[in-house]
What we know:
This protein has strands at residues 9-11, 21-35, 38-45, 54-63, 69-77, 82-84, 94-99, 113-117, 123-127, 135-143, 148-157. It is an all-beta fold. The protein has a single domain (9-157), classed as Immunoglobulin-like (Sandwich), CATH 2.60.40. It has a five-stranded antiparallel sheet with strand order 3-2-4-11-6, with no helix packed on it. It has a four-stranded antiparallel sheet with strand order 1-5-10-7, with no helix packed on it. A hairpin with a 2-residue loop joins strand 2 and strand 3 (38-45). The chain starts with 8 loop residues before the first strand and ends with a strand.
Amino acid sequence: MGLVNALFLIATGAAIADPNIQLDMSVAKEVVIEENGEEVIHWVDAQEIEPGQKLRYTVRYVNAGDEAATDVRIENPIPDLTVYVSDSASGEGSTIVFSADGGDTYAPPGEVTYEVTVFGGGKDRRKASPERFTNIRWLIEEIPPGSAGEVSFVVTVQ
C-alpha cells in the first residue's frame, strides 16, 4: 500500500432505512513557512514526500441518503512506512479507537495491546505506544440525512 493511497473502510449497522454514506479521502503534507518573522504551518497537497515529513489523512463523509445512518464505522490502516503521531486523530462526534494488531482488536489509546512471543514459546500481551498503532477506527452513532463531517489523523514518514 502506498503512503498517499491508504485504504479506508466504512460499515453501517443493519438499517431498514436507506442511508447512503459517501466518502472522499485526501492527503496533505505539512509545510512550515516563515511569515512576518514567524513560522506558520500550512497543509498542502502531498504530491512528493520525504522521510521525516508529516502527512495528514482526511476522510470526508456525507449521508446522501434520505434516512439516518446508524452505528457507522470508518476504518483506516496506518500506511506502511509511517508512524502515527500521538493524539492527532480527530473526528467531531465520534469515538476513536486504535489497533496494534492489524485491525483484529480495537481499544481506546491507553488500552491498546499487542501480543509477543516470549522466551520458551509463550505469549504475552503488552501495552502499545501510539508508535505501534496499525489501524484507526472512528465510531459514529448517527449521521442524519444530508449531514457531512470529516475524520483525520497525522503520521510521520519514516
